[in-house]
Write a structure and sequence with these properties.
The structure is a single chain. The chain contains 10 helices and 10 strands. With 387 residues, it is α+β, with helices and mostly antiparallel strands. Among the domains are: 130 residues, 2-Layer Sandwich (Beta-Lactamase); 138 residues, Heat Shock Protein 90. The strands form 2 sheets. The chain has a 5-stranded antiparallel beta sheet, with helices on both faces. Strands 6-7-8-10-9 form a 5-stranded mixed beta sheet, covered by helices on one side. A hairpin with a 5-residue loop joins strand 9 and strand 10. It binds adenosine-5'-triphosphate and magnesium ion (MG). Adenosine-5'-triphosphate binds next to helix 9 and helix 10.
Length: 387
C-alpha cells in the first residue's frame, strides 16, 4: 500500500508528521507495519509484523480483530479506547503493551498508530508501526526490581540506625539514672547510718564526760567529741553533695547556680554563671546529665587548671542545649584531650560517651598556658517551653 493513498484525506498537521515518519520505514522490514482499511475491512501486515506476532504469513487471519485479540487482556481496553479516540479525532497515539504469541511467548510492543479520515470526514483507515521493545522492558522491570530492593534495604538500614540511636539514648538515660540512684543510696547510708551512729557516739561521749572528774580525761573527751562533730558536719556536706535536694526539686538553672556556690564553698572556686534568656526546660535525664557534666568540668578546673576562677554558660542553639565551661588556667597539651586513648582520666571520656549516646557532642580546646574550654551540646528531644 502507498501512503499516497491518503492524498486528499483530512489530516491534522501532527498526524501528517506521524504519517510521514511512518512512511520512511514503511517499506523496510526493520519494524512491523500494518494498514487497516476501515471501508473494506481489509488489513495488511508486512513480513516483520508476522514475525513479531509469531504468525505464519500463509495461514494467518490478517485483520484488526486478530491483532487486538493477541493483546494481553489487561492492556486491551486501553488500546481499544486509544483507537476509538483517534478514529473520533483523526489523531494518532503511541502506546506500549504486551501480546501473547500463539507459541505462548509474551512480547512487549510499542505501537504508533494514526487514523486517516476520508473526504466525507468519516474515518477511513488506520496505519501503524510496531516495534519489539521486550529487551528494553525487561531491563526497565529489572531496574525497578533492583531499585525497590535497594529502597527496602535503605529503609531497613535507616530503621536499624534509628533503633540503635533510640537504644543508645535509652542506655544513656539508664546509666544516668543508675548513677543517681547509687548516689542517693550512698547519701542515705551516710545520713541514716553513719551520721546517726556518730551522733549516738557524741551523746554517749558527752554523758561520759559529765561523769568523769579527771580534768585531763575530760579535755581528751572534749577533743574526741569535737572531732566526731567535725566528721558529722563533713558527712552531712558529703551527702548533700552526693544527692543535692535542688537537683530533685529545682530547675537545671537553679541546680547549676547551686553547683557554682557549692564549688566556691568547697574549694574557693569563683564560678561566674550566665544563661541565655527564655531557656527551655530539658527532660529530667538531660538535666541530670548536664548537671553531672558541669560538676566534673568545674572539679577539673580545681584539679588541673591551677586557677580559682571559671565561667559557666548555658544556652540553646539549633535545638540543642549547650553548656560551656571555661577557665584561663594552665591548660594542657591538646593531644591529651580529644583522643580517648591518650586521655589519662575518665571524666571527659565519660561525658563524651554519654553525650554521643544522647545524640550530642563535646568539643574541647586547650593548649599549655591557654586555659581549658569545653562545649557540650545535647539535642533537646522532648523539651518543654518554660512558662
Ligand atoms: N580545666 C583543665 N585544665 C587543664 N587541664 C585539664 C582540665 N580539665 C582536664 N584537663 C586535662 O584533661 C585530662 C582529662 O581529664 P579527665 O577529667 O578526663 O580526667 P582526670 O580529671 O584526670 O581524671 P578523672 O576525671 O577520671 O578523675 C586531665 O588529666 C588533664 O590533663
Ligand atoms: Mg576529671
Amino acid at each position: 500500500m502507498e501512503t499516497g493513498d491518503t492524498g486528499g484525506a483530512r489530516l491534522p498537521r501532527d498526524a501528517r508528521n506521524a504519517l510521514d515518519a511512518m512512511s520512511a520505514v514503511w517499506r523496510s522490514d526493520a519494524v512491523g507495519t500494518w494498514h487497516w482499511d476501515l471501508r473494506t475491512g481489509k488489513a495488511f501486515w508486512n513480513a516483520r509484523m508476522f514475525e513479531l506476532l509469531g504468525r505464519d504469513p500463509a495461514a494467518s487471519d490478517v485483520s484488526g480483530a486478530a491483532f487486538l485479540s493477541m493483546i494481553l487482556a489487561e492492556d486491551r481496553p486501553r488500546i481499544e479506547s486509544a483507537i476509538a479516540e483517534i478514529l473520533r479525532t483523526a489523531g494518532h497515539f503511541e502506546e506500549e503493551f504486551q501480546i501473547v504469541r500463539p507459541d505462548g511467548e509474551a512480547r512487549w510492543l510499542l505501537a504508533r498508530c494514526v487514523a486517516v479520515h476520508g473526504e466525507q470526514g468519516a474515518p477511513s483507515e488506520l496505519l501503524g508501526v510496531i516495534l519489539d521493545i521486550t529487551g528494553r522492558k525487561r531491563d526497565e522491570i529489572e531496574m525497578q526490581r533492583v531499585t525497590r530492593a535497594l529502597e527496602v534495604r535503605l529503609g531497613e538500614t535507616s530503621e536499624t540506625v534509628a533503633q540503635r540511636t533510640a537504644e543508645l539514648q535509652r542506655l544513656a538515660v539508664q546509666l544516668t539514672q543508675a548513677e543517681l540512684a547509687e548516689r542517693k543510696r550512698i547519701a542515705n547510708l551516710l545520713h541514716d547510718t553513719v551520721q546517726q551512729t556518730l551522733v549516738a557516739a557524741i551523746l554517749g561521749a558527752e554523758k561520759a564526760r559529765r561523769q568523769i572528774t579527771n580534768a585531763g580525761a575530760r579535755e581528751t573527751l572534749t577533743e574526741v567529741i569535737s572531732a566526731i562533730q567535725e566528721v558529722v558536719a563533713r558527712t552531712r556536706l558529703l551527702s548533700i553533695q552526693l544527692d543535692p535536694p535542688v537537683l530533685a526539686h529545682g530547675t537545671l538553672s537553679e541546680s547549676l547556680c547551686w553547683l557554682a556556690d557549692s564549688k566556691r564553698e568547697q574549694y574557693g572556686l569563683q564560678v561566674t554563671y550566665r544563661e541565655s534568656p527564655g531557656l527551655a526546660a530539658p527532660s529530667e535525664e538531660i538535666k541530670l546529665f548536664v548537671f553531672e557534666a558541669a560538676r566534673e568540668l568545674l572539679f577539673n578546673v580545681v584539679k588541673h587548671g591551677g586557677v580559682l576562677a571559671a565561667s559557666m554558660g548555658l544556652g540553646v542553639q539549633d535545638g540543642a542545649l549547650c553548656l560551656s565551661v571555661d577557665d584561663e588556667g594552665q591548660g594542657c597539651d591538646p593531644g591529651l584531650v580529644g583522643d580517648a586513648s591518650r586521655e589519662q582520666g575518665l571524666g571527659l571520656a565519660m561525658i563524651r560517651d554519654r553525650a554521643a549516646m544522647l545524640g550530642g557532642e563535646v568539643s574541647v580546646s586547650s593548649a599549655p598556658g591557654a586555659g581549658f574550654h569545653v562545649r557540650l551540646r545535647v539535642p533537646l528531644h522532648d523539651s518543654r517551653a518554660l512558662p
